[in-house]
Amino acid sequence: MKKLVTIALTGTVLAGGVFADIPLVQAAGNGPDYQGHETINTSILHTYSEMVDFLKKQEKKQSNMELEVIGETVKGRDIHLVKYMQNPANPTILYITQQHGDEALTTEGSLDFIKQLGTGKSKGLLDEVNILIIPMYNADGAMGDVNYELENYAASGDRHLTRLNAKGIDLNRDHDAKTQPETQALHNNVLEKYDIDYMIDLHHQGAQWVKDGKYVSGAIFPSHPDHTDPEVLQGSKQLGAVVYDAIEPKGWGHLANYAGKGSAYDNGISVYGLAHDYDISTLLLEIRGTADNANDFEVLGQKSNGYLTKQAVIAMDATARAIADGTINEKEISFWDDLPVQEERPY
């Protein structure tokens, strides 16, 4: 059986995977907290139309890149798939960003990664691995274009961002029932169409989680041991090892084992359902703090945007390289046994 993997994650990267010096200020989950007084402005984030313009320009610049529309959102926005498919025989990895519309730095990181894939920094990478990216999967939620009121949200700017789709459905609970057009597009036109070996699902969590007494910059989570083929689970944990080793030792990232409201088994959640239904190894990376929310403890001040976006880029780059050169298959997974589960601490 093939080894398969999915992750969730949110930058400037140098050639060969060596990263530029990263400032330690506000790093490793140290803030700034929101609490009603930090700046949160959605105008600094890509709008849907700005993202589409960016993707079309990159497609013209990058000979290896192809842009495909896989379906539409509830409000009729095209859902785009960015494709780098040099050789169908190569292993394939899928990255999904912004299933939840208020988790915006995942999309910001994916756009940085796409731009990087068209430069010499990624020379030779696309010869060994196929890469699929869905940026801003929940575009209606990301644009606040929904059929319900968004009251008491934290951010200022030209729009609010919200977790659910336009109909108020959590897309990351819909992978079993597949009731929404966004979910149907993903399953019918991506998961069933392409032979995907790995999937990385990029998310955000609240800002209140800690490990070793310090706020985390993110948390990782593999597929479920009781509902996943052993080889698929092995691949999931190996992908987690790649992400952990690329982030934690740098001194600015601080990762824990994920624990949250979504940790109970539900086949509608991508980290569980896609591993179970498609034999795709799945790993979740929940990055700290959302871009907008009615609950202050979910939101993080935008001064943290830089290192959190870079965390996503590093995770995507590191996993793509490990799959391309096969080193993912050599990753030791015993660290999972000792990785502390994050704890909730009000701030």
List the helices and strands and how they pair.
Layout: H1 48-61, E1 66-72, E2 78-84, E3 92-97, H2 105-117, E4 130-134, H3 139-142, H4 181-191, E5 198-205, E6 209-211, E7 214-215, E8 218-222, H5 230-247, E9 255-257, H6 270-278, E10 281-288, H7 305-325, E11 343-344
Parallel strand pairs: 3-4, 3-5, 5-10, 8-9
Antiparallel strand pairs: 1-2, 2-4, 6-7, 6-11, 8-10
Helix pairs in contact: 2-7, 5-7
CATH class: Alpha Beta
User: What is the CATH topology assignment?
Assistant: Aminopeptidase
Low-confidence stretches: 1-27
Rg from C-alpha positions? 18 Å
How would you concisely characterize the structure shown here?
With 347 residues, the chain is α/β, with parallel strands linked by helices. It is 26% helix and 16% strand. The protein has 7 helices and 11 strands.
Question: Care to describe what's here?
Answer:
- A hairpin with a 5-residue loop joins strand 1 (66-72) and strand 2.
- The model is unreliable at 1-27 (pLDDT under 50).
- The chain has 347 residues and is of the alpha/beta class.
- The chain has a single domain (15-344), classed as Zn peptidases (Aminopeptidase, 3-Layer(aba) Sandwich).
- The chain has 7 helices and 11 strands.
Write out key terms for the chains shown.
347 residues, alpha/beta, Aminopeptidase, 8-stranded mixed sheet, 3-stranded antiparallel sheet, 7 helices, 11 strands, 16% strand, disordered N terminus, metalloprotease, zinc ion binding, hydrolase, metallocarboxypeptidase activity, Peptidase_M14
